[in-house]
Structures are given as structure tokens and as C-alpha cells.
Amino acid sequence: MKLKSLLITLSMVVFMSINAQETNTPKFGKGLFNLIGKDSTWTMKVGLRFQTLATAGWDVNNGLSNPSSNMLIRRSRLKFDGWAFSPKLKYKLELGLSNRDESGGSYFTHNSPRHILDAVLKWNFSGNWVIWMGQTKLPGNRERVISSGDLQMVDRSLLNSRFTIDRDIGVQLRHKFKLSDNFLVKHIYAISQGEGRNITRGNVGGHQYTARIELFPFGDFSGKGDYKGSDLKFEENPKLSLAFNYDYNNNASKTRSNQGSYMFINGTSAGSSAEFYTTNISTFYIDAMYKHKGFSFMAEYASRDAADPFAKNSDGSLTGDEVQVGNGLNLQTGYLLSKTVEVSARYTNISLDKSITGKGAENQYTLGLSKYIVGHKLKVQTDVSYTDIGFKTNQLLYRFQVDIHF
């Protein structure tokens, strides 16, 4: 299935290149090639990237004995973007090819790999107003919206893995305006399906509603730096983005809003006869990004709550599932010792409600080192993390990753 999909994709690319008026091969990191239609009514940039990751882990409580290790292609992506009919109508299509990218296939995705990450149209219909239609990342926590290819460390924090609302299919309305010569405001509103990406059946409950506002008191960042790790642009003047957003998932059926596992009831499981527990789940985020002359600092806070977090059968008995309510804090900073070498540090705290989830607090401390050969397009990153879980379980993790992006 994976080979067939890849061959179809590559055949499509070859066909388009043959039938295009002009093929440009840009410099490294700017795409494999650019296409322009014969009548100049469409464009397409084709990109490819992958990450090779090696990890080693130890249980500190056992004296660092019997370490675990793993090597894998963490991510492998094909990307297509450009405009169609008019430069005001842009699009993006991104396909995931690695096992991790495709994982999550189930009855609800027709037991198919989840190849499609993004498939979205972006219509600038008036002034600074843009409407997005399709499947893409929701305007959730900043770290999630930052591309995995633009991260400051090897991967995202525990806050993201526990509290992200990730991707979904729906509609987003985006706008920006200035309060003064420098003070910029961006705001985003989204209505989505509420079950996550690539769900083709079993849409349960109501819809998901997300709103986000971002404040830039010192003006916009260079090169979209508010959504890129590290200050590779070496901002001459201080730049700050402060954001607030709220997400409400009406009658959600998963343990982490539109993420996590489905909450089945009455002894049913995935299938046409499945029955679900649903409850209203809300998630609140505050985050900030600051950059100046090679120094960067990012902070995120997340909080999730539910109307009734305990999943119940029709007779009121507990199923054993519960919504993962609680909060998380992530603080991350970095400093470029030169234009290509950066040291970074991160602290993350996850505090789920123990009376509901039965889980103790997690604290993770991470130190990182990055070598940017061609910015984020070709880089080598490594980090080491120490995690304590409930002050009873202690883990040590080492990671090494090479990232290349055509």
C-alpha cells in the first residue's frame, strides 16, 4: 500500500513537470523544483524532507542497566504548495511516508494508513482576511504549529504530546491588523470536525471550536520567526509574540479532546455497533515567543477540563476510561554561540489531575545542542533528557537526529 501510494505520487509529479511551461530548480532548501502552468494560472513547489533519529534510554532506578535503543526514520514527508487560478488562492498538500507518520489507522480511517497530513486551500478573499478550508493544524499551542522541521530541539515537549489538539478537518478564518505603527494583532477562528485527522467514519458528537489571538507589541518577526525555533535571523530589535487561545470540543468522544483514544461504552468496541461516551472538553493555552540577537525564549501553559471526565456506561457504571484533565507548563530557551551552533535548555511539567487520572506529576529537564549547516534545512541535533514521574520513576533519554529538507 505504501509503495503503491508513493509510485502514484511520483508519477503525478513527473506528469506535471512534463506538462508545465517552466521548471525551475531552486537552491538547496527551497524545494526540489518549481512548476508554472502553461497558461500561468497555477504554480507548484515540490519539497521533500526526512529525519533520521537514534535514541537510547535508561531506567535510572535500576542503576542505568539494560539500556534500550532504537533507530528509525522519525518523519518522511512530501510537500506540495503554490497557488491555483489566482495568487489569492493558495494551497498546501503534505503527505507522510514514514511508519510514524502513517500510524493510527483504524476502523475510523477505513483501516487505511493516514498518508494525508495537510490538504488545505487558503483564500485571501478581502484585504488581510484569509479563509482556510480542509485538513491542517488547528490554531492550538505554539510548539505544535511550529513545523517539525523548524524545531529548536530534536522533538517537541511533553506538553505538546499530552495537550495538543493537532490536526483536524474544517474551516479557519484568519485576519491581522495594526494598532499602531509597530503593534500587530493576529486572530484566528476555527470550526472543525472534532475527531482529529483522516477520520472518514464514526464522527461522534458535535463540532470543535477554536479561537486564538496573538499580540506583537514590537512588530512582526523576521522570516515568520514567531513559528520557528531558534533566532537564526538574529533579530536586531527585540521581538515578542504573546498569544491566548481557547478550544471547546462539544460532546467529544476521545480522552484528549480530538486526540487520544475513543471512549467506548456498554462493552462495545470499534465497529458499526460501537457506542461512545461523550462530554464537553475545553482546553486553554497561553504561550509566548521572544527573540533578540541570537537569544530565544518560548513559554507555554496548557489546561484541559471536562464537564464530566469519568466515562460511564448507560447504566451509570464506570468504563475505566477518563478524560486526561490537568495542566502543563513548558519553558524553553536557546542561544546561538555562532551563526550555526546553538545550545538550548527546556523544562516541562505535566500535572494531570491525580484524583481522576491516577497519574503522578512528570518533570522533564532537557539540554540540547544543534549544528545548523543550512539553517533548519540541513541540521544535526542532539539532546539528553532526565524525567521523573511522580518522584518514583526516573528515566534518562539520549537522542541524536539528522534533518534534511529539500
Features:
406 residues, mainly beta
Description:
The chain has 406 residues and is mainly β. Helices cover 9% and strands 54% of the residues. A 16-stranded antiparallel barrel has the order 3-4-5-6-7-8-9-10-11-14-15-18-19-20-21-22. Strands 12-13 form a two-stranded antiparallel ribbon. It has helices spanning 2-18, 99-102, 142-145, 158-163, 354-357, and strands at residues 22-24, 33-36, 43-59, 68-84, 86-96, 116-126, 129-137, 167-178, 184-192, 208-216, 239-252, 254-256, 259-262, 279-292, 295-306, 310-312, 318-322, 326-336, 341-352, 362-374, 378-389, 393-405.
> What is the strand tally?
22
Query: What coarse outline follows from CA principal-axis ratios?
Result: globular
H and E string: HEEEEEHEEHHEEEEEEEEEEEEHEEE
Give me the oligomer status.
single chain
**Strand order, sheet with most strands:** 3-4-5-6-7-8-9-10-11-14-15-18-19-20-21-22
Task: Give a concise summary.
This protein has 406 residues and is mainly β.
Task: Please write out the topology.
Blueprint: H1 2-18, E1 22-24, E2 33-36, E3 43-59, E4 68-84, E5 86-96, H2 99-102, E6 116-126, E7 129-137, H3 142-145, H4 158-163, E8 167-178, E9 184-192, E10 208-216, E11 239-252, E12 254-256, E13 259-262, E14 279-292, E15 295-306, E16 310-312, E17 318-322, E18 326-336, E19 341-352, H5 354-357, E20 362-374, E21 378-389, E22 393-405
